[in-house]
Amino acid sequence: xxxxxxxxxxxxxxxxxxxxxxxxxxxxxxxxxxxxxxxxxxxxxxxxxxxxxxxxxxxxxxxxxxxxxxxxxxxxxxxxxxxxxxxxxxxxxxxxxxxxxxxxxxxxxxxxxxxxxxxxxxxxxxxxxxxxxxxxxxxxxxxxxxxxxxxxxxxxxxxxxxxxxxxxxxxxxxxxxxxxxxxxxxxxxxxxxxxxxxxxxxxxxxxxxxxxxxxxxxxxxxxxxxxxxxxxxxxxxxxxxxxxxxxxxxxxxxxxxxxxxxxxxxxxxxxxxxxxxxxxxxxxxxxxxxxxxxxxxxxxxxxxxxxxxxxxxxxxxxxxxxxxxxxxxxxxxxxxxxxxxxxxxxxxxxxxxxxxxxxxxxxxxxxxxxxxxxxxxxxxxxxxxxxxxxxxxxxxxxxxxxxxxxxxxxxxxxxxxxxxxxxxxxxxxxxxxxxxxxxxxxxxxxxxxxxxxxxxxxxxxxxxxxxxxxxxxxxxxxxxx
Length: 481
Ligand code: NAP
Ligand code: MG
Fold this sequence. Notes:
alpha/beta; seven-stranded mixed sheet; 15 helices
C-alpha cells in the first residue's frame, strides 16, 4: 500500500514583531520593569523575549490606575458606550487574528491550526458576546441597575493564554469593572499584544492593566487591599491558597481549577465517531485542557474494538512543529510540565498499567511527549486520580451503566464529562447522575461564550461564560458596598 506523507506547510512568523524586552501595561502605557525573565518557544527552546517580573510596587501602581479609571470613567460610562469599546476590541482582534495565532503558537507550543481556528476566534467571540451584554445588565437576573464590584484582579494559566484573558476581561468590562490581569509566566506575549489592542481601541487609560510575572506577582495581586474581586484559573492547589488568603477579607472570588473528566462510552455508541471524540477529548491542545476527557470509561463488551480503532487513529496523529499547518499535536508547554507528565506516566508503569504509544519521532530540541494511552488502569492508580495535564489517556472499563456513573464520579474533581450513546434516554439519565459542571453528549470540548463553564467540588467556584459568568462581576443595586 502506498502511503502519502504530508509536505511541510509552515505558517510564516514574519507577521509578528516580538520586541526583545517588554514592560508592564499600566494606566494605558507600557512601563519598564525592574527585573526580567525569559519567555521561550517550547518547541525549540529559543528565547522569544525578556518579560518584566512584576513586584508588589508594580501591582500597587496597576491597582491604583484601575481604581482611578473605575471611579472617574468606566463605572460612570453608560453601558452602551462601554459596549462600543468591547465591539471595537473584538473587531481589532479579528483583524489581527493571524498575528495573535502565530504569537500564541510560538509562545505556548500549540498547533497553529488550533490557535488559528479555536483559541483566537473564540477569544474574539467572547468580546462580541459581552459587548452585547454591556447595555442589558438589567436582564442579568440581579434586578434593576446591578452594579459592578470595582477593581478585579485576574490571574490566568498558560494553556489557553488569550482565550483565558478573554474569559476574564470581557465580562468584567461589560459589567463596568476595571481590571489588573496577570498572565502566566510561560505565555505572556499575547496578553501584551492585547494591551496594544486596548491602545488601538483607545480604551480609557487604566481600565485594563497587565502586570507580567510569576506566582509571587499573582500572590501580590490577591493580597492587595484595593482589589474587590479575584478571578483565578489554574491549579486546585493555588486555588485553595487563594481561597485561604481572601477568607478574612470582603473580596469576591471565582476559581476555575483542575479536572479529571470521565469520557463514558456505552456499547450502543457509534464507534467511529466516538473514536474521534476520544482523540479530541484528550489530545486537543496536547491534553493541556482542564476539562480534558482524561479518563476513558469503556463498556467491557466493546472495549477491545474501541481500543483497536483508537490505536489505528492515534498512529495518524502528526506530532511536530506547532507552526506547521498539518500538525495535530504540538510541544509540551514547559520543561516543568514535561517533568510532571513523565513522572505520572512512570507511576502508571510502576503501578501495573500498560502503556502504549504509536511509533512517532519527536523533535530533538524542545519539550515533547508522544500521544499515550494506559490500559488496565484501576481506580486506585495515580493516573486515574491525578490530573496529568498532558497527552495521556487512562482507560478503565465498566459492565453496567450504574458502575460507569460510580466510577466517573469517583474523583475529587467535577469539571467535565462526556457520554457516548445512541440512546437519548440513556444520555439524559447519565447526565443527571454525573457530578460535573459541563457534560457533552456525543461530542467533546465544545465551547461557546453563551454557555456557562465551571466545576463541582475541587474543580472550582462559580461559572464563567453566559449569564451565569457575567453575574460573578455584578451585585444587585441593594447589595452592601
Ligand atoms: P497554576 O500553577 O495554578 O498557575 C495559574 C496562574 O496562577 C499562573 O498565572 C501562575 O503564575 C499563578 N500563580 C502561581 N502561584 C500563585 C500564587 N501563590 N498566588 C497567585 N497566583 C499564582 O496553574 P498552571 O499549572 O499554570 O495551570 C494548569 C492548571 O490550570 C491545571 O490544573 C488546569 O486544570 C487548570 N485550568 C483550569 C481551567 C478551568 O477553567 N477550570 C482552565 C484552564 C486551566 P505562573 O505562571 O507564573 O506560575
Ligand atoms: Mg513561552
